[in-house]
Amino acid sequence: MQPLYEGKAKRLYTTQEQDVLRIVYKDEATAFNGEKKEVFAGKGELNNRLTSHFFEILEQAGIPTHFIERVSEREQLVRRVTIIPLEVVVRNVVAGSLSKRLGIEEGTVLETPIVEFYYKDDTLGDPLVTSSHINLLKIATSEELKQLSDKALRVNEVLQPYFRQNGITLIDFKLEYGKMADGTILLADEISPDTCRLWDQATGEHLDKDVFRRNIGSLTETYQTLFNRLGGNTQ
Ligand code: C5P
Q1: ipTM of this predicted structure
Q2: pTM exceeds 0.90, yes or no
Q3: Protein residue with its CA nearest to atom 18 in ligand 1
């Protein structure tokens, strides 16, 4: 089938069905807008399994996503959407860019979750944008933005207790949404240790891509540990 798009961590192909696409997860990890790059054998398979698992949990909780099914070690079928060029970040605990931007110590627990929007544009370095910027760029209407924020918080309400039950704190995560041909907004892209910060509740150990960004551990071993902690061996 036709290659449609190649991103940093995934390739997208058409299928025989007009409304269905095939995603292939790559072994490549990138950070800092692609400046740091490395290949880790097995990463694609782990992220495909983890993303599929998280999307299944969300679907079971009544959250519509683009996910249809995982079809092989590295591949899944998804519904075709047009991606809204926003990264929707939800934060429960201060870390990463929020800590740097506002000078608040990493690990500070937020009283209520924070939602942020970043404009998906590699040449601009994905800047943080306000609702006025988003309206100015005609990316989404105020009503759609409210929907995105509500939907992202709902994902947090499902995933936060799920990770807590497994001894893991969901610090923050990034979501992407897409529009189907009829305008319906669906959760799309991926949810994986590439796109979440996950800290071990007891030890504070990082179980996510920060081990690669910060050179503090083996990415493959970390993702495998996360997979096993979430019952991966029995899936
Ligand atoms: O870097 P920052 O602190 O803003 O990241 C917040 C969350 O969004 C983290 O979980 C990070 O993994 C995720 N993120 C992402 N892709 C980006 C930027 C951030 O998945 N381009």
Answers
A1: 0.98
A2: yes
A3: 174
